[in-house]
Amino acid sequence: MAVQLPVTFEFRANQTFDDYYPGSNKEIIDQLRKTVAGTGEQYIFLWGEEGYGKSHLLQACCHEAFHQDITAFYLDLSDSASTDPELFTGLEGFEIVCLDNIDALAGREDWELAFFNLFNQHRDQGNRLILSATCTPNSLTFTLPDLRTRINWGLSLKIQPLDDNDKIAALNYKAQQMGFDIAPQAARFLLTHYDRSLTSLWLILDKLDWASLAAKRKLTIPFLKQILDQRD
Predict the structure, then answer these.
(1) Residue 36 has pLDDT above 50, yes or no
(2) Per the confidence metrics, is the pTM higher than 0.90?
(3) Which residues contact 142 (CB under 8 A, 6 or more apart)?
(4) For the domain that residue 197 is a member of, what is the CATH number?
(5) For the chain: N or C, fewer Cβ within 10 A?
(6) Does the residue 4 lie in any domain?
């Protein structure tokens, strides 16, 4: 019998479904929520380029599960180089397992075999699995043939990127949740002059939130330039 290891994961409090601006990805959120609740697909494969919010959505699934008294576990496999595949031991008992960046395991035979065993044991218990990657399941270069077959069993969902108007709406949505407003012209200024990835934009919002409170000033474009020009 497998022994459950005392593993933990970083639970990001601000990465819930309510914190995620969906754009054209509302159907994906609906599918994920159904899977968490046990009324949807048993296995979902979520893919899209970096910065599209895959990690956020997997964390959101865990938040949703905890609120429904469902056991859940999140693991980012991009950090697996410094760990051991024994980390999978015991995860088959969780009702929801969310494995981020599953493509990091490709070509690593010990990890592939450990994941293959987890996949089978977890599924046999009727539990739900949610994976993420930057490519389609067909594009994963797993060396284990049976794993290549199983990885294609689930519902494959592609996250759609946000266009500029969506990103402006997302900035305003996120800012309002943080307790302040950002005018459309200020948001467009950020998209034009700074890193446009959502991860970078959220970091900028954190800095602007603190700066506007400290200075007791609104987020005008001159104030944005003043604050952001001070970045390291």
Answers:
(1) yes
(2) no
(3) 105, 106, 107, 112, 148, 151
(4) 1.10.8.60
(5) C
(6) no
Residues 52-72: tens digit of each pLDDT: 899 999 999 999 999 999 999
Q: What range defines the domain where residue 52 resides?
A: 26-158
Statement to judge: residues 126 and 201 lie in one domain? no
Residues 147 and 190 in one domain: no
- 210-229, pLDDT tens digit by residue? 777 766 667 778 878 877 77
Does the residue 76 lie in any domain? Answer: yes
